[in-house]
Each structure stands twice: as structure tokens, then as C-alpha cells.
């Protein structure tokens, strides 16, 4: 059935109800927002594509991922024969080691602290996380890298086809081969990977976000997905009593928190590229507009607006914290390290008196270095016990 997606203004909830059913999925204690997105099928029949908030739509993915990992379902059940697909005089084992080594080199080059943080993970998990990292980095490079101006939606379609091949055991190159192997070994599903590509498509066609619901979906696509890809590899602690949904939810929250932080740090830089990732309705409520961002003046209005945005990002970090202790013990350290480091960017924006137009918020070398043992202590003892231990 061919269908077009229309954006219509349904007006109040009651009106919407008369046009299509308000879909209420069972996310307890979350308000069901009516989203005015309606899909018309052939003959004008309303298909009711989605009247749910982005949060609810994303939560369905979370539930699916959690179910997969519970069942220990492999993302792809493939026989792995690298020599069939990659040329060279190697045995399978040599090629795989080389593939993972290459991934490690990319991580060490692009994300030193993260690379260091992976050193405490078990070797197998570390290598798998590197492979996922490299795929994410390459995907982001498509729209943000030196060839970005040549990237079309078609190119992203080809990248998605290549992803399917990777999941079916037909890698194109060594980095793909590492990922092919990873997804054959761990219960990693293709959905979050496809969703990340969808986020890159969104970036190509959209430069404004009407409200937080739209922004949330974008953040899920480009960053929340990373959490969902990583948990099956990081592993859940055998003694964990938390539900898998809770853990996935925390992983999603960490991705969202990181991306919101990214956005707040890069307001000036993004503005100069003609992009505003801040919710337009919230800007308007604060008495601000795109013009204020392009002018880049730190006013009282801007400071107040930023305070609200920072508070929201911190709430997502808090939600993420709840899940880290449930991960397998060796995986907790890098996750705490990334959480502590990213969250400090928010402190740095505050320290810059909310000038994210001309000053880039960053975590200095000393704080970066101090965060690693702090993360290690928290991973070992938990945040409360670490505080008690230090206060003794
Ligand atoms: C239970 C629990 C809390 C589990 C932890 C789950 C977990 C490991 C979550 C990781 C969250 C995370 C690190 C998300 C990355 C978010 C992010 C910064 C996304 C960036 C997107 C695009 O942004 P933009 O273009 O605006 O930014 P740049 O200017 O380009 O920086 C990304 C760049 C998408 C690509 C993401 C990556 C390259 C990072 C991938 C990282 C991993 C696979 C490793 C994650 C593991 C650890 C230990 C952090
Ligand atoms: Mn990017």
C-alpha cells in the first residue's frame, strides 16, 4: 500500500480521537501524548501511523531489544567464512584478529579516553565494542565528515544495504568483518543500527526541531541507539535483579543525555552551519528565537533557557546512573567514565557563564584523568558506597 505522511494539526485531543484512535501503549506512568501525525492509505483511509509520542515509539524498540537479549537470540545466525568475502592470504582467525586490531586503532585515534576505558573489559567484549564504535563513527562521518556534502539519501540507502549484508555475514571490508563477527556472537539486533542511519537521514532533511518530542526522536536515532547496541555486548551482571527493560532504558537514557549535552555544547558551531537543535517552542516560551542564536549574545533570557536545558540533560544522566550497576562488573568502568566525563561538559557550560556561542565547553586534562579512577571506584563500590568510603 502506498501512503503519504501528512502533518496535520489535529487541535485538541478530543478532535484527534474522533479522527483516529488514540493509541495507548502500556508504558505505565507516562502520559500518552497525542501526536498529530496521520498516515493516509490508498483511497484516503487513515492508517493511524502513529499518534504516540516519540518516547513511546522508542520504548517499543527498547522492549524488543530487551526481549532479544533475554532470549539470548543472536542478531544473525550466520556461518562465518571471511575468506569467501575478503581477499587476501589469511586464515579466518588471522583476518579476524587483524580486523579487530584495526578497529582498536581507530578507537585509540579518535577516542583516546574511551579506548583507555575499554581496557578493563574482557578481551572479547572490548573488541566487540570497538567494532560497534567504528561502525557508528563511520556512519556519523558520512554526514559530518569531509565528504558530507556529497552524501545523499541514496548513499545512506546503500550504507543500510551494506549493513544488512554485514548482519548476514557478507562484510565488504575489514571493519565490517569485525562487526559481522560481533553480531554473530552477541545478541545484537539490527534495528538500532538501522535507526542510527535513519537519524543521519533526518539530519540531511531537517535543521529545526519544533518541540522536545521531535528532538527526543533525533537523539534516540543518533545516540540512544548506541546504548541499545552496546548492552548485549557489555553484558548484564548475573546477580542483577533489575528487569532487562530497566537496564535498556538506562542505556537509552545515557545516549540521550550525551546527545543533549553535545547539542548544548555545540549551539554556536551548529548555528553557524544553519542548524538549531534546540526545541523551537521552548525557545519561543523563553522569549528567544533563531535570530538570538545567530547573534550569539548571552543574555539573562539565554541563561535561564540554558539552565532548563541543562537540568533536563542531567535528568537523563540520573536515569542512566540507575542502570550502570546492573552491567557485568568489567563493563561498568568505561560506562561510568563516559558518564562522568560527558556530564562534566554541562558543568563547563555553566562555568563559561552559558556562553556556548563563542566558547567550547570541555573537560580539562586533569579532570579527565581524575575521572578515570573516580569511575573505577564507583564501578567497584557504587556511588553511595564510594562516598561513604571516602568520608571515613
Ligand atoms: C545501562 C547502561 C547505562 C549502559 C550503558 C550503555 C552505553 C554504553 C551507552 C553509550 C552511550 C553513548 C556513548 C552514546 C554516544 C552518543 C553520541 C555522542 C552520539 C554521537 C552522534 C552524532 O552527534 P553529533 O554529530 O552531533 O556529534 P559530533 O560533533 O559528531 O561528535 C554520534 C557522533 C554518533 C556516533 C557515536 C559514536 C561514534 C560513539 C559510539 C560509541 C560506542 C559504540 C561505545 C559505547 C561504549 C561506552 C563504554 C561509552
Ligand atoms: Mn557528528
Automatic annotation (TrEMBL):
Keyword field: Carotenoid biosynthesis, Isoprene biosynthesis, Membrane, Transferase, Transmembrane, Transmembrane helix
Top EC class of this enzyme: transferase
EC numbers, comma separated: 2.5.1.32
Keyword tRNA processing: no
A GO CC annotation given for this chain: plastid
Known catalytic reactions: 2 (2E,6E,10E)-geranylgeranyl diphosphate = 15-cis-phytoene + 2 diphosphate
Transmembrane segments annotated in the record for this chain: 215-237
Pfam families, A to Z: SQS_PSY
Domain of life: Eukaryota
Keyword Transmembrane: yes
Pathway: Carotenoid biosynthesis; phytoene biosynthesis; all-trans-phytoene from geranylgeranyl diphosphate: step 1/1
Molecular function via GO: 15-cis-phytoene synthase activity; geranylgeranyl diphosphate synthase activity; squalene synthase [NAD(P)H] activity
Any one of the GO BP annotations: carotenoid biosynthetic process
Family (UniProt): Belongs to the phytoene/squalene synthase family.
Protein name: 15-cis-phytoene synthase
Lineage: Eukaryota, Viridiplantae, Streptophyta, Embryophyta, Tracheophyta
This protein's encoding gene: LOC101501341
